Amino acid sequence: MADRTDEFVFDYLVVGAGTAGGLLASRLAADGRFTVALVEAGRRSANPLLSLPLGVGQVWNDPRYNWSYRSEPEPFLDGRELYLPRGKVLGGSSAINAMNHVRGNRHDYESWAALGLNGWSYDEILPYFLRSEDWRGSPSAMRGAGGPIAVSEPAQKDPIIDAVFASLRAAGHRHNRDYNGVVQDGFGRAQFNMSQGRRQDTGSRFVFPAARRQSLKVFGNTVADRIQFSEQGRAIAVDGVRDGLPLTIRARREIILSAGAYGSPAILLRSGIGPAEELAEHNIPLVANQPNVGRNLFDHPRIALEYVRRRPSQIHRTLRYDRLVMALARGTLFGTGPATQPLAAGHLFAHTRPGLPAPNVQALFRLFNPRLRPRWPFSPRGEADTFGFVICLLHPQSRGYVRLRARAPHAPPGIRHNFFASAEDLQQLVEGGRMLRAATTSPLLDDHAAGELYPGDDCQSDDEWADFVRSTADTIFHPGGTCAMGTVTDADLSVRGVSGLRIADASVMPLPVSGNTNAAVMMVAERASDLILRSSHC
């Protein structure tokens, strides 16, 4: 039985049921004219911890939900390997992320359009942001209403919030009630994909309802290996492995890769689309010589500023096992209480120097120490509770790559981000750290901060700041660009050199966006559904 191969035939085949793929497959199935297959390496999860902000941290590293990749040693980060989580569950990374909802800046998409990518200017893609959104704040023409994904500002109560906002205002930063509105610059309360204290991901909001339709078939626990092509170079099927057995799914019309910035280029490479010399190293027959597949990897590098809290946060008090169990039960049953408190309380989008067309740094303000772990009653409290900022560089110049380490579909790809290959990136992140330190070294925070934990008093000179960044910088988990529009795909997301194959996920972004990427990936999927359905009439 081990060599049995099952075959299925559908009109459309979407590989990856994550942020993009789950949304896209549900939109195609809802059209009613076509059958759709959705392939996902993970499964549907009934674990209630994934839906709670505090709960997901308890299962984040579980291999049932997370690919847990690691980078190659990063040459400009003292040779450190970076932890690279990616969702492996229906909903993908939207099911395990921090739920921040950030569209980016108008200038981001105008820059895409300036590359000759017709249809991707800000005014053209704004309707796709609105389509999936159900904004729970004040009505605005810039916000969506009635979409499947709720976006809200949870009421977080902590006196540090007002004190931090006051210190930012005193430092010259403007208050912005809606950074997803007309203007992004400034600071304000964080917005999340949440409703009644629970996560809103594309699995629960798109895939689960759509799976009730006969037009959609979800293949869980199925790892996609390679794409089959006809003699004419048309994508016709995907070979994979399901529950240890080979599986082939055929597509009458199109195959769409939505396996993410790491997964989509890896599948292309295993299928014979990529740099000819790399494919030859793995004895993979060449289908299309595409030297840019897996190149142009970008992400937002980040550092942290932390201050010791004079009084522990609500989360710190909750992380005692007896209290934690009650908090998780309350959050699961009623959608209230400390288990529903997100990690971030606010965002700042700022310029570290004049003349920039868009903010070059984002600072996520958090209320508690994310390294805190549950403890037993009467046991030591362990690490101090903190508050602070995660500061990330929004438009890095450095680029990395994704490559094959081995031919097998279960083998993790080789990933290198090359953070700070450009010295300018390091300089701008240092500027961001200095700017936030200056804003928060304020008498307005004296009642709340007992001292700076990171980077600490011994970090003052330019060289000390540079050492701090190189030794502590990490990714904030926003990879993209590895199958970029304009090089690997056309503006309609069709892969160059073959037919019947598109890509719809963060890998097609040609340049980084100004902020968290989940909302932008949903936008790409919404636009992809329109492009595909319109072409079906031709």
Task: Name its key features.
single chain, 538 residues, alpha/beta, FAD/NAD(P)-binding domain, Cholesterol Oxidase, domain 2, 2 domains, seven-stranded mixed sheet, seven-stranded antiparallel sheet, 13 helices, globular
Describe the structure.
The protein has 538 residues and is α/β, with parallel strands linked by helices. It has 13 helices and 24 strands. The strands form seven sheets. Strands 1, 2, 10, 11, 12, 13 and 24 form a seven-stranded mixed β-sheet that branches. Strands 7, 16, 17, 18, 19, 22 and 23 form a seven-stranded antiparallel β-sheet that branches. A two-stranded antiparallel ribbon has the order 3-4. A hairpin with a 5-residue loop joins strand 11 and strand 12. It starts with 5 loop residues before the first strand and ends with a helix.
If you consult CATH, what is the topology of the largest domain? FAD/NAD(P)-binding domain
* Oligomer state of the chains in this structure: single chain
Q: State the major sheet.
A: 7 strands, mixed
In what range is the share of β-strand residues? 15-25%
Please tell me the overall pLDDT. 95
What is the topology?
Blueprint (H helix, E strand, L loop, with lengths): L5 E10 L3 H12 L5 E4 L13 H7 L9 E2 L12 E2 L21 H9 L7 H11 E3 L13 E3 L7 H12 L15 E4 L4 E2 L2 E2 L2 H9 L5 E4 L2 E8 L5 E8 L2 E13 L2 H11 L2 E2 L1 H6 L6 E2 L11 E9 L4 H5 L2 H14 L9 E7 L10 E6 L19 E8 L7 E3 L10 E3 L6 H18 L8 E6 L7 H11 L1 E2 L25 E3 L14 H18 L3
Helix pairs in contact: 1-6, 1-13, 4-13, 11-12
